[in-house]
């Protein structure tokens, strides 16, 4: 069992400049902390965040290992110290929480995985929206984010939980909001969206700068309206994880195959057009 680090004998916390704090907490001028230039609420928020950062730098980061073994599978997590808890894993990063800081989560990127800088930029553009998280602090390869409570739609389907239409509508509205902010919602699927108390949330925005066309959310909505609502929901059926995993991997293989076919077809049509053009010039 891995015990928490004691207060004595630990590596001192790196110098924390509050200019790196992002989001609602704002930027704090430390020279005015004893004056009237900063409110008590903002000061309390800053001290709260500073306490969390101490736990991160002194306990979490020195011990936990986040590794990307297979690029298209969730990262592997090992050596997680108590009392930290793993909340979720994606293909790029893992998300953790501490019991004393229930409103924040820590997202740690696996070494060698891209997307950290892009995610910061996306959060900066999004600002505040009820369906998205917010970034409070960022240092290379990890973020401190506002915690979103809920259950992923992937888990809802496995557990036979009812997914109201309002959840789908909320996510649609959130994605449209992101587009108005100059972003490109990408890689939105059942693992990256959640519901809580009948409302929908988007939990992964790391690929929102990717301008490549992505139909995952549209395909999920088709399955929701054609399969889930008329069949699965009325019967209260649960779909085992291994079946969902087969569907997920099958979808990826099919998507890769169709993209390859489109590329080959485009190259073929381009080649034929070039030949016809040369004949016409003759």
UniProtKB/TrEMBL annotation:
The keyword Transferase applies. The keyword Kinase applies. GO terms for molecular function: protein serine/threonine kinase activity. InterPro entries: Kinase-like_dom_sf, Meiotic_Drive_Suppr_Kinase. It comes from the Bacteria. Keywords: Kinase, Serine/threonine-protein kinase, Transferase. This is Serine/threonine protein kinase.
């Amino acid at each position: 069992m891995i015990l928490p680090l004691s207060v004595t004998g630990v590596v001192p916390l790196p110098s924390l400049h509050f200019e790196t704090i992002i989001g609602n907490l704002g930027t704090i001028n430390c020279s005015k902390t004893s004056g009237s230039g900063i409110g008590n609420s903002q000061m309390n928020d800053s001290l709260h965040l500073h306490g969390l950062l101490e736990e991160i730098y002194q306990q979490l980061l020195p011990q936990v290992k986040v590794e990307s073994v297979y690029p298209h599978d969730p990262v592997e997590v090992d050596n997680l110290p108590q009392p930290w808890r793993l909340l979720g894993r994606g293909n790029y990063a893992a998300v953790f929480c501490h019991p004393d800081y229930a409103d924040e989560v820590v997202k740690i990127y696996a070494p060698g995985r891209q997307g950290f800088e892009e995610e910061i930029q996306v959060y900066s553009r999004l600002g505040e929206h009820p369906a998205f998280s917010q970034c409070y602090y960022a240092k290379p390869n990890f973020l401190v984010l506002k915690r979103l409570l809920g259950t992923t739609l992937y888990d809802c389907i496995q557990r036979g939980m009812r997914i109201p239409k309002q959840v789908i509508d909320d996510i649609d509205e959130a994605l449209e909001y992101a587009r108005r902010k100059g972003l490109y919602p990408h890689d939105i699927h059942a693992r990256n969206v959640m519901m809580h108390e009948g409302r929908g949330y988007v939990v992964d925005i790391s690929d929102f700068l990717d301008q490549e066309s992505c139909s995952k959310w549209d395909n999920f909505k088709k399955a929701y309206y054609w399969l889930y609502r008329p069949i699965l929901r009325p019967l209260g059926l649960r779909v085992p994880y291994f079946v969902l995993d087969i569907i997920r991997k099958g979808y990826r293989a099919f998507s890769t195959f169709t993209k390859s076919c489109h590329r080959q077809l485009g190259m073929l049509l381009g080649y034929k057009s070039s030949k016809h053009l040369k004949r016409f010039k003759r």
